[in-house]
Each structure stands twice: as structure tokens, then as C-alpha cells.
Amino acid sequence: MIDLYFCTSPNAWKVAIILEELGTEYNITQIDLFAGEHLTPEYHAINPNHKIPAIVDKAPADGGLPITVFESGAILVYLAEKYGRFLSTEIRSRTLTLQWMTWQVAGLGPMVGQASHFVRFAPKGNPYSVSRYVNESLRLIHVLEARLNEAEYLGGEYSIADIAVWPWIGGFPALLEMLDIDVSRFPAVQRWIAAVGGRKAVKAVFARSDTAINPKGVKKNMELTEEEWSNVFGEKNLVASMISGNSDMMGKRS
Q1: 221: left (phi > 0), else alpha (psi -120 to 50), else beta?
Q2: Is the overall model pTM greater than 0.90, yes or no?
């Protein structure tokens, strides 16, 4: 049994997809970020970075105590290596796969994520911020198109690289529409979206009620309460990550 700490997001979908691909038993624990459930001491023990996703593997390969893993890229590598699938041991294929997975976690995800933030949550009047991150997201999709014109999948064969990238491009079409990014301009990307999206494991994730897209979170200019903002972007989110965590550090910066 693997426990997956989850909220509706591309990074969490990656982990759900590989677990479905592996056919291993897993349990979903929903974490409500707006309610601050990621800031509790209990969750801190699992993920000191207070982000989603994270897993607890109760039956690790060494037969020892449960292993916790946070950061979606690290989780994908951990599971691929444990089960011997979706990450080649051959040096060239492995390196290619890890390059494209790292490209996602270091580039595509942060850029699309920041674009999403400024479109969905930031106060109005941030045209430079929106333009900066949307343009960089679009540039990266051009890079993706070029790669997929060379190969059927990012690592040559279907791998954790595709599992990492697909949720950001194929799993959340409403997000790209919100950013005015038209993937129909990219035929190789469209072909790849259909191929990965047609896999049984991917379909299973988006058919589950506890892992499917939450339409409530897909809209521009979302309005949060002061507490919700503090839990996700403001003071409570900051203080939870401080080593001391003293309550007297609470200010009005949020």
C-alpha cells in the first residue's frame, strides 16, 4: 500500500498516473490547501516543504520502515526504480528520460504554474507578470513540439518524462485556454496528447471522483478569503516553513 497525499493539480496527477500504470495498490488522502491542511505538524512530518504531492510507501523494497518521498519528480524516479518500469537502466535512454523530466519540473511546470497564478489569483493590473510567464510557457511548448517531431515519446519510449509533462499540457486543457495558449497550433504535441491520454491508466485517473479535474478551480480572477490567501500564499504559509515557527513572527505581510 502506498499513501498518496493529493490535491487536484498536474503535479499530483503525475503520481496518480504512474501508480495506475504500475497497478499497485494506493490510497488517496486529500489535502485541502485553502483550508491549510498542508501546514499541519502531521503533514510537515511527511513533507517539510508543505507542498503536494507526497507519498508514504509502507512496503519499501528494502523491507524496512515506511519511506516518505516528496517532490513529484523524486516520486516518479523512486517508483520507477522500485518497480523497474518507465525508466531505462541503459545509460543513453535513462539520461534522455531524466533530461526531459527535469525540463518539466524545472521549467514547464514553474512557468505554467506562475502564469496560472497571475491569471487566477493575483490582483488585477499585472500585465507584465502575465505576459512574462505566458510567453515563456508558450516558448517551452515550442520546445516540446520540436522534440515530439523527432520522437514518438520524450524519452524515445513511454516513460516518466511523458508522465511528468502530460498533465500540464494534456490533463488540464482549461488552464491552457485560460492562458490563451492554443495547442491546436502544435500537431506533434496534439498527437502525443492523444496517445498518452488514451492510455488505460491515464483514463482511470481522470475517471475517479477523487482525482478528476475540479471545475470550481478553473477560472480567472478567483476570489479567496483572507484566511485562504494566507494559507496558500501568505503569512500562514510562510510561518509554517520557518524553522522556529514562533507565533510572534506572525505579522500583516499577507
Answers
A1: left
A2: yes
